[in-house]
Specification:
205 residues; mainly alpha; two-stranded antiparallel sheet; globular
Length: 205
Amino acid sequence: MFLVTEDFKTFIKKYPITTVMVGICSILVIITTFTGGYTIQNIINLGGYEHELVNQGEIWRLFTYAFMHGSYAHFFMNMTFMIILGRPLERVLGSLKFLLFYLTTVIITGLIINFFYTPNTVETGASGVGYAFLGMYLFITLFRKNMLFSDDRKFVITFLGIGLLSSLIIPSTSLTGHLAGLIIGFIITPIVLNKASSFQNSVNV
């Protein structure tokens, strides 16, 4: 289920929201590269979250932070999250619900980061959304396990475990943003996921 098998044209057709979000982040990587690179000031200039600027009225940063990244490695890691985990969810929710889920996660996570902010820290990235995806998969694994093969459930738990461990040991990681996304995704899932929803090729196990 998590393996990407579609060619580029089919991918765009089947997963338009995933494609657009990855595309926006990719465009910002190019812009970042040609406007000064991954310096703190350039990241702020291009929409990164900075607490004092938000307090001064630049509330749009509570949204734009999710499309900026702090480095090329950060970008590639988050886009891997997006492509591997997001595709199946866009198919099962439908593109409109998936978009609303995505945007809701971005905004609420941004608000939580703002409330529990770390002084002198610039926040960026789609990690909160990625963990919201994991929160949805965790809910499905616990309460709708018939939607997933047993190997897929193991993959979710393993992926989540590695993600949480890395959030704890990597100093520059936003643990608040990751946990916020995870909890938001878990809570929203029963609201947006129909009881009859199923992943393609899912079976009762």
